[in-house]
Structure prediction request, 534 residues.
Amino acid sequence: MTAVEDAIVLKNGSKTFQEDAENPVYVLENINLTIKKGEFYILLGPSGCGKSTLLNIFAGFLDLSDGDLQIITSNKTNRNSCGFVFQSADSALFPWLTVEENISFGLKMKKMPLEERREIAEYYIKLTGLTGHGKKFPDNLSGGMKQRVQLARVLANEPEILLMDEPFGALDAMTRRSMQKELIRIWRETNKTVIFVTHDIQEAILLGQRIGIMSIGPSSKITSSYEINLPYPRDITSIEFNKYYRQVQAHFEDINLQIEER
Amino acid sequence: MTVVKEVKIENKILRQKKKGKSKLSLILNTGILGWFLIFSVWSVVSYFSDPLFLPSPLATLKGAIEIASDGSLFIYMGYSFARVFAGWTLGLLIAVPTGLLLGTNPFVRSLLAPIVNFVRFIPPLAFITLFMLWFGIGEQSKVFLIVYATFFVITINTFTGVLSISKDKLRSAQIIGATKFQTLIYVIIPATIPYIFTGAKLAMGSSFMAIIGAEMVAAKEGIGFMIWNARLYFKTEWIFVGLVVLGLMGFLMDRLFTYLGKKLLSRYKVVS
Ligand SMILES: Nc1ncnc2c1ncn2[C@@H]1O[C@H](COP(=O)(O)OP(=O)(O)OP(=O)(O)O)[C@@H](O)[C@H]1O
Ligand SMILES: [Mg+2]
Prediction:
């Protein structure tokens, strides 16, 4: 048995936005984080603490101001091995392309022939429960289905690391629940590394193997980390689940107190 | 049971009401009523006034037949249309790439945007004499005037379109490794098409304004020439024929363009 490999290693990562010379915005300070291959990692924190910023750094959308980031994947082209699911499917999907064309967009950019593209798109349409909707345009789908399209579009490029920024935040409770289940199913089927941002404690415990809690900004850090040792699929009504919930909730109360003190 | 029945009947009444309403709105939508109103007012007012001052609709129709009988009306329409079409097409071909460049390249934007925002307030008509000096009194000066008239509307619309593309769309392309060129072709242009379309439509209006002006000042043919020329013969009804024909040409071009846009570009959600 070899030790599980690392997927992302961040050392002393800091991010400062330089809006203008006088007023730098210190968002992240000295973050150290190692994420294992195949891990389901949750970034949990209050609004505005810098979760999206951190995820955008992993994705390569933003650069670190200081520190060192390593994305370890089997193929050489570093950044393409990440996939990103945005919070808003409406702003991320291409409304002029059908569901199928959206999903195979990345493959088209890689100049894969149409037939092959179609086949792969069909596979991911099935995997994400979109069978029969391939020829529709995103505008004609419900919010939950649009988010499935986004997930399928990301998966079709076979990224090793899946970055998800509050992907279910805009969905109603029932749709969110079923999407969470699907995501766990897909994650276990595909063995991907997932980094999932949320500010919903229940969602965090339902999905994650490990939860990193970020402090309020400016200069946020990952202050503590919880391992959730519960088998999947998880039951939110179980006693064990509630134990974790209380723990994390208590931690959050502390953070809220901090916010109030300001 | 009875309750169910009542509801059904109510529904039926409701539906009938809706039907009646939709018929009325259908008639209203054709605009016939509005036209009828305008023609009535025009007829009544012209009845009490000097035909040299305000010819009646009938006199205008007679005037139209008069100019149409030797074919000159159609030749004039043809000239005006050809100039507008040539200038507008050429303007579109120049303005769209310019708008894309302004939208995608911050350096070009900071270099050219101030100039664009200065020049666009100079109306095309102000350039007529200058263009004649530069390009001669032939077709060239007129076509270029229309290019000028269309350029800014389309450029500004295009570049606004590029700037309003959501970051997430561009990042979606970036993260799967799309090249800059691929992003332009497969994301930026498709996302901007509705804006380009609107710009092109607005530019049609400016084209007509410019061409009539140019034809009044320097042309031996065209609707603008016809309107300007009418004063020599005290033919006020010819002016009215010109106005009606202009409206009609613009209306038809706009309709055709919108129809084609909706047919060919439906997936890009062009709005009319
Ligand atoms: N481009 C930017 N320029 C300046 N400040 C920024 C920029 N992007 C983010 N910030 C600031 O960084 C902080 C963190 O933002 P971020 O979007 O990462 O928070 P978040 O944890 O994702 O919040 P939420 O849960 O509301 O999505 C905020 O205070 C925000 O104002
Ligand atoms: Mg965020």
